[in-house]
Amino acid sequence: MTKVGFVGWRGMVGHVLMDRMNEEGDLSRINPDFFSTSTPGQKGPQDQILKDAFSIDELSQMDIICTCQGSDYTNKVYPELKRRDWNGYWLDSSSAMRMNENAVIILDPVNGNVIDRAIDQGIKIFVGGNCTVSLMLMAIGGLFKENLVDWVSTMTYQAASGAGARHMFELMDQMSFLAGSAVDNKDALSLGKLVQKNMEHASFPTGNFNAPLAASLIPWIDDGMKDGRTKEEWKGEVELNKILGLKPPVPVDGICVRVGAFRSHSQALTIKLKRDVSIASIEDIVKNSNKWVKVIPNEKKQTLDKLTPAAVSGTLDIPVGRMRKMTIGKEYLTLFTVGDQLLWGAAEPIRRMLGILCR
Length: 359
What we know:
This protein is of the alpha/beta class and 359 residues long.
């Protein structure tokens, strides 16, 4: 059996990955070893003794190293492994090597052909993509496959969990801080003033987000770039084109916003089509692109029931709705999509890539 070393399996993405592998019985088809950066020598999953995640000797015995530990770990350990001439597969959920020319960003329902070609060519680095990019392609990858997309403008509404576990707890702390404003307060205008006052209070918890998120939003994610985009917005274009192997690249741009959803990212897309295509044809292309995408009729009840973070969190479903042609022209398509960024945006492509490498 293939020897697979897991690093970062206790973190948020790693935990979701382990849950999915247990659900699908994946661990029984490999020979897993579990590594730790903090508690080597202690007991881990399957009653194994945890190995040292910084031991190059131990790591170099693996056929595949699967890491959800983050970019700092990758940047420290991978170069040391290569100096030892390790020739195994490096499977990584972090962004550290996404743009490496010898790395492939994985999303096999969308770019399975790119992955298969890379394996045949001897590529050894496979990395998970940016969560919103992966979710977007799960939703509209069929339109790219049919060569219908001229450009995309995406406006994202990204959940707190996309920033990490500490940010999830901070959102809950902010909610709790504000919840006291409603106690015995029967006047809406007075309540609004009290909520605003509490958000401006010196004790209001903003150590991670650096701004209120509860009862508000944050229209900035990641570092700024010289052209006015944030790095999160830049990833939309460069990663999408790399995943699909598009030359010339398709322009993708927009604004990324952090919202008070707890889990699952949403996106409103404006798509300039290369030609006029009927909504019925577009719906067929979208819903037939993979088995997880679901076309939601553009009507109120089904939208409220099926096209929200609350509806999809914890599932692999990728609903696509609010689909219509825009009044500015018949080649302009607008739609709304949502997906669990901890699944298709993070853990699931890693899990499925392990299956491909071990088949």
